[in-house]
Structures are given as structure tokens and as C-alpha cells.
Amino acid sequence: MSLLKGFLKKISVRSLETIGLAVMAICLCQPANLFGESLARTISLKATDQEQDIRIPVGSTVTFLNNYPQELYETSIIKDHSNKKLLSIESFASGQSFGLQFSKKGPYSICYSLKPKTDSIDSICLQINVVPLQTA
To answer: Do 5 and 25 belong together in one domain?
Structure first.
């Protein structure tokens, strides 16, 4: 009987170790999703982009990718409440990408145009909300 108890104890410990490893693998692969939020790490600029609420974790580097089949013009990232321009790219070629780290939470916009030398009326803007990770 004691041999059976020792065997069951080893199985339980190994099962817990396996579960622990599985939980750790989930944490390493999807840390932003542990707390129920869907947070972007890549923002794709493309003709069919209809996302309304793009949320990214504060302090993370986000990749912006031009998936249009053409060049984008006057691409800029703006901190919404202050209208402070964080980045401005005159010409953003198709297939190119760049990374940017957001160190402060709050609302931002990325705006771009499909035509060179246009006014702000022709700009396409996506809203970005930089949020802190929530703890359980």
C-alpha cells in the first residue's frame, strides 16, 4: 500500500510540474492575453483595415507595416491630446515596416495618405490606445 501511495505522490508531482510548464509556456507566448485584453504588437496598414479599437501595451515596441500595394505618404504618429507629432515619414514604401516604442499610456493616432502632397482631408487615421497591463 505504501508503495502505491509513493507512486501516486510522484505522479501528482510530475503532473503539477507538467501543468506548471504548460502555464509558463502560455505566459511566454501570449503575456498580453493573460488578463483578458487583446493587445496588438503589429499594426498593419492596409486597404481593408477596419479595426476601430487598437490597443497596445505601454512600454512595448510595436511594428507598423505597410501592406498596401503602393507607397504611403505623409505618415505620422501623433499623441492625441497634445497634438505632439512623435514621428513623420514622408514616403513609406509598400512592404516596409518600422518599430516604435510607446512609453506613455494614452490615445495616439497614426495618419497617412495614399496620394503625395495632400491635405489632411485625404488622410486615413487609425486610433491607437496605449494601455497598462492589468494584474489579476
So the answer is: yes
